[in-house]
Design goal:
With 173 residues, the protein is an alpha/beta fold. It has helices spanning 9-26, 45-52, 104-114, and strands at residues 2-7, 35-41, 59-70, 73-82, 92-100, 120-128, 141-145, 151-152, 168-172. The protein is built from three helices and nine strands.
Length: 173
């Protein structure tokens, strides 16, 4: 298997810092009402860890586990592998995703989390594939737009491998 680098460490670091500033300016959070950041596991963990260091408003972080991929293809079925523990009713919530392909996962998340009655619900993704989107769920904060290539690194995997790479690369078959 071969990889073609798409985004190096410096490029990722620069964009993540910019996203942190954008989020800090856009979301009203206070010490008494901190932002709830929900990191979607497993793929977004590296991105979320770096991102929260650049968000300059009070926040709490929680984690939600979802699974929908088998190899390089989506199974079409979304499974919750870990529920959030945070109380989000009446609070500002930011969901942090690694990548948005068809948008089905975002629709699923919006439906699941809206039931918990947050004050606001926004989405941030490191990577978005607009050509593949099949839904209209808004993504307020996007790191990079890419085409339909399958990518790995910086938390993104191929059968649970390559998450540890400090850059993002396209899988070339």
């Amino acid at each position: 298997m071969q990889f073609k680098p798409l985004f190096d460490e410096a490029t990722l670091a620069r964009r993540v810092a910019e996203l942190g500033k954008e989020i800090s300016a856009a979301i009203p959070a206070t010490d008494t009402e901190p932002l709830v950041v929900i990191c979607i596991l497993k793929g977004a963990f590296m991105f979320a860890a770096d991102l929260v260091r650049h968000i300059k408003i009070p926040l709490e972080i929680d984690f939600m586990g979802l699974a929908s991929y088998e190899g390089t293809k989506s199974s079409g079925e979304i499974k919750v592998t870990r529920e959030i523990a945070a109380r989000i009713e009446g609070r500002h919530v930011l969901v942090v995703e690694d990548i948005v392909d068809t948008g089905t996962t975002l629709d699923f998340l919006r439906e699941q989390l809206t039931r918990k009655k947050p004050k606001s619900l926004r989405f941030c993704t490191l990577l978005s594939k607009p050509e593949a989107h099949q839904t209209k769920t808004a993504i307020e904060f996007v790191g990079f737009e890419i085409s339909r290539e399958f990518v790995i690194g910086y938390g993104l995997d191929l059968d649970q491998r390559y998450r540890e790479l400090p850059y993002i690369a396209q899988v070339v078959t």
